[in-house]
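Extended Data, panel c. Modelled sequence:
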Amino acid sequence: MEYFVEKGLGYQEVMQSIYHKYGESAKVMHHRNIRIPGFLGLFSRDGVEVTGYLSKEPLRRRIDIDEEKRKILSAVGERSDKAAAEKGRDKGSDKGGDSKALQTILDEVKSLKEQLGNRPADTAPAEHPAIDQIENLLLENDFSPRYIRSMIERITRTFSMEDLKDQTAVEQQVLTWIGEGVDIYPRQRMSKPEVFILVGPTGVGKTTTIAKLAAMYGLGRGAQQRGPAKVRILTIDNYRIGARQQMETYGDIMGIPVNSVENKDEMKKYLTMYQDADIIFVDTIGKSPRDFERLGKMRALLDGCGASSSVHLGMSATTKTSDMHEILRQFEPFGYKSVVLTKLDETTRVGNIISVLHEARKQLSFVTYGQKVPQDIERASIPFLLKHVNGFTADRGEVYRHFSEDEKSTGEGELHG
């Protein structure tokens, strides 16, 4: 596969340059903001760098005329073979056998022609300016090729040629479909204390996220809480330099007790000690998803948290799409209930995140987007995620209201009564 990197002063300028050079075969993977140096390194300016690849196969689903041709050719071959076999068995009936075979082929060709002719005249073709626009928008937002293919196929099945004239309506429907594909983790009532365990690879910001969650619930911001919850924090991250001190500092500022846990027995001891708490957050060791031995040991320690615990997977929004799939798979043995998305402020595209979670059928619970505790965290919601899908010019108000009402009706966000 051939890749390209293009730089310029603005995103639209770079995209025009890419399509001028490579045409429709250019597929954008991601872009980032850069500084473009001026003369002798002076007077540098803000710019954009776009990375992508040249596709040999179009993503759009085309009306499969070739398949019909293959059927005809296959029928011709089969009938010819049959006629030849009959001819070999009975040379006296050559003319009659050939005539029968030819008539059968003509009948099948006529039938296929009728089937093609009966195709609805207003069925949307896969190649259409409105569909091209949607495909480009999805590419610019970093949706995966598989996700884009399924979306284009859905458009061609749903919209007629007449419907495609209303670009705004098409965009609004696509945004709705994107939202419907996002699965939000429902915060259900649980027996007290609830034990919230956050696992994940190194560098995704688990410790800071635990502090934000603890502050959120400790201040009564845990979505539909009736007041501040009684919060406790346990940490098993005793190996990373400064990790324990960092969490204890957060605890001191928020007035929340923090205890360090070394083994399964200590875990049970502190859980018994904090039976009067509403929620206990457990910060874990950051491990590579390939470090199977240490992951196994951590899994055994977390078994001490009991049946009231729920495991959640922290994953950075800046992670490559292929690595996201790998992380989801490698942490599967922990039985995590949802994904907590971190570092959303470090990327401008969420298409890959939506694609990966949709394809893996995983739920999203919280989103963080900065270092401030407790401000830079939100309860995951479909409208919040759709606001980060860029480029759609349709009026999003109705789409947002639709999903906001859905979330209210399901009572999501409740922690305790």
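Residues 58-66, 409-417 have pLDDT under 50 and may be disordered. This feature is highlighted in the accompanying rendering.
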